[in-house]
Specification:
Blueprint: H1 7-46, E1 53-54, E2 66-75, E3 81-85, E4 89-93, E5 98-106, E6 112-121, E7 129-133, E8 140-142, E9 147-156, E10 171-179, H2 182-188
Parallel strand pairs: 1-7, 2-10
Antiparallel strand pairs: 2-4, 3-5, 5-9, 6-8, 6-10, 7-9
């Protein structure tokens, strides 16, 4: 004959099961909310997905090996700016800090504010491209007709030549896109591979 459970023991067991179920649900919800920033952090730490590494000083040229770094510029429709790279490409030695410039001009008759994102391609070089300073992820407001130079300081890790996956890569492309707001950038998907801001440097 089956043993009958005490009503209090049964109620206690049900409370434990209910608590466990709620714990699983809340854990899954928390993981869902955390997955995006955790993935973003993973990309920034590893360079995965073309996200440049940031904040490290250049060690100085480790060899005579060089790569070509190309510069792309784009502007979201609706932002009345002319935005372009001052140089289409430069040759840089591995391990040596380099400096390049973009120019932005407000062609409207009223102040206009933009904010930029960036990434590098091929995506596999993200871990070896170190951005020291640039103008990204900060609002830039230009008065009517105002033109400004926007520099980017960077270096390419010499280990790019030792990695079997990247050692034959001779050209890296750096792409900047100006949006009217970060919300616009997020809606466009541009933030997925973008790197973190490390310091404004405009003149």
């Amino acid at each position: 004959m089956p043993q009958r459970l005490d009503p209090q023991a049964l109620a206690k067991r049900n409370r434990r099961m209910l608590g466990g179920a709620f714990g699983v649900v809340f854990g899954m919800v928390g993981l869902a909310y955390a997955s995006v920033p955790l993935y973003d952090l993973f990309c920034k730490v590893t360079g995965y997905g073309g996200t440049p590494m940031i904040g490290l000083a250049a060690p100085g040229a480790a060899s005579e090996a060089e790569v070509t770094v190309r510069f792309n510029a784009a502007t979201q429709p609706g932002l009345p700016w002319r935005f372009a790279a001052q140089q289409p490409a430069i040759r840089v030695k591995l391990g040596e800090e380099a400096l390049a410039f973009y120019t932005a001009r407000n062609s409207a008759d009223a102040p206009a504010t933009g904010i930029s994102t960036y990434n590098v391609t091929p995506e596999v070089v993200g871990r070896y491209f170190h951005k020291v300073a640039c103008f990204c992820f900060e609002d830039q407001t230009l008065t009517p007709g105002q033109s400004v130079d926007m520099p980017i300081a960077f270096w390419v890790d010499p280990r790019i030549a030792e990695d079997p996956v990247t050692r034959d890569i001779r050209t890296i492309t750096v792409s900047y896109t100006f949006f009217r707001s970060l919300n616009d950038a997020e809606r466009s998907g541009a933030l997925a591979n973008a790197g973190a801001h490390v310091g404004r440097a405009t003149r």
